[in-house]
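Example 3.2
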Amino acid sequence: MKNSMTTTVNDFQVISVVIPSLNGSYAKLLFLTGLEYAKLKKTSKSNIGKNKKIFSLYMESNVNHDLLQSGMGVLTKKQFDELLKENYNSKMQQGRGGKLLRDAV
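Structure, written as tokens:
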């Protein structure tokens, strides 16, 4: 696992993504390339200090969903749709009781 200090085309980053209005506090685990993650961080930083409606939250994690404090952020619905929706919906993940988490529409 790399740290978030530098990003190259060959890096991969694991993130946990939560959409509270869709799956409560349950997260899906996504794998992003270094370039995808760099774009995600840049977009998320553009939301700081702005009064935008938050749709999703992400945090760097490992494959066990252990959250790492080195990177986190929020996205609006439009930003999520552009950056993560396809990846998010391609993952099947179970929440409590074995129930599958819902996909974003």
